[in-house]
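[step 3/7] inverse_fold.run input=structure_tokens len=295
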């Protein structure tokens, strides 16, 4: 079987295209979906990601604000910024870029965001609704993974899905979503991680493998069975003297080594990454629709 590369860039573009009539319908009501991103500190990866979000808003003609603060901001000051955004009618989505400095309690920050404006899908209210199968604002990367499967016509029903990684951002929520009674769900899900015993034996059972462990090229071909679907969430910088930047981006999967084993595989970059931002745009539009419907 010829390995199919899942084109996250194209699927993300298709998601944005489908948002345009929804955005137009809101504009007819005098509503422009608005996203506010709060960036604390000067982490280069975070700055790149925040800039990408701003460009995505610009392409869709959404209202966008980026609030940049020094790393020495107090937790109280950050919480006051969020409270002001909660009360701002121009803002329908609020996102505080992670990570925040160690002196700030990230959960306290998340709890301050109004659940209806929590476009990251991290507020406990939205997490609970997701677990109940009633979520509207779903975590962007896990929801993007489901969209990649759907658009690639990969049905997880009855399949064995192994997720390597148990983070609150990817591993846990994508497990919860894939076990739902839903169109892209009904899977038998195993969550493995760095402390799993005989990890290779677990991953070899996977019909669909989702790698989100944050370790460059950790998943090797001998850990997989033939014709597995590979979704690689990892984005890792590794030294590369042949590159002008001095590094290259690789996933959590040994892409070249695993390519022939896979029926479908996502590249890094160009796989899951573009989906995360497109799903953020979708959440912002969904939040604007829901907020405007109760105004």
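[step 3/7] decode complete -> sequence:
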């Amino acid at each position: 079987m010829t390995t199919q590369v899942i084109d996250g860039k194209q699927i993300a573009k298709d998601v944005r295209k489908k948002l345009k009539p929804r955005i137009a319908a809101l504009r007819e009501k005098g509503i422009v979906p608005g996203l506010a991103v709060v960036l604390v500190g000067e982490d280069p990866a975070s700055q790149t990601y925040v800039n990408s979000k701003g460009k995505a808003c610009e392409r869709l003609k959404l209202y966008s604000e980026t609030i940049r603060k020094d790393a020495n901001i107090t937790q109280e000051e950050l919480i006051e910024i969020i409270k002001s955004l909660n009360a701002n009618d121009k803002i329908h989505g609020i996102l505080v870029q992670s990570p925040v400095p160690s002196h700030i309690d990230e959960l306290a920050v998340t709890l301050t965001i109004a659940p209806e404006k929590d476009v990251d899908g991290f507020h406990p209210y939205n997490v609970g609704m997701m677990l109940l199968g009633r979520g509207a604002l779903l975590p962007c990367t896990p929801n993007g993974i489901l969209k990649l499967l759907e658009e690639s016509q990969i049905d997880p029903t009855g399949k064995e899905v192994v997720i390597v990684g148990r983070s609150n951002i990817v591993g846990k929520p994508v497990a919860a979503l894939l076990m739902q009674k839903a169109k892209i769900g009904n899977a038998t899900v195993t969550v493995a991680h760095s402390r799993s015993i005989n990890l290779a034996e677990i991953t070899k059972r996977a019909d669909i493998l989702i790698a989100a462990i944050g370790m460059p090229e950790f998943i090797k071909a001998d850990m997989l069975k033939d014709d597995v679907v590979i979704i690689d969430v990892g984005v890792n910088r590794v030294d590369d003297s042949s590159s002008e930047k001095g590094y290259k981006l690789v996933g959590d999967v040994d892409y070249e080594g695993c390519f022939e084993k896979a029926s479908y595989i996502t590249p890094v970059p160009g796989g899951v990454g573009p989906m995360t931002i497109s799903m953020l745009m979708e959440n912002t539009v969904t939040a604007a629709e829901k907020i405007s419907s109760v105004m």
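[step 4/7] annotate
DSSP finds ten helices and eleven strands in the chain.
The longest strand covers residues 34-40.
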